[in-house]
What does this fold into?
Amino acid sequence: MIRHCACGNPIRLRDSICKKCRIEYGSDPSGWPEWVTYLVQQEQREVDRKRLHDFDLPFIDEQMLPNTKIRPTENFDKEPDELVWERQ
Ligand SMILES: [Zn+2]
It folds into this structure.
């Protein structure tokens, strides 16, 4: 996954703008032109969305497994205390 600077240059994920823009606009976001801040925010939103999507997949798989393997009655026999807490 590649992140892009407001100017279009590819940058590292943890960076918000490229080296060239950092020199030109400074490293302090409050000093950036409005369009730079806007594009960086758009890119950040896209990065967050993709990152969330990446983390979602294994998380869903883990949640699905107990549901398909263990029926509610079996679950109740094994761990009644935990089940009661979950229902409250
Ligand atoms: Zn740039």
Observations:
- The chain has a mean pLDDT of 79.
- The longest strand covers residues 3-4.
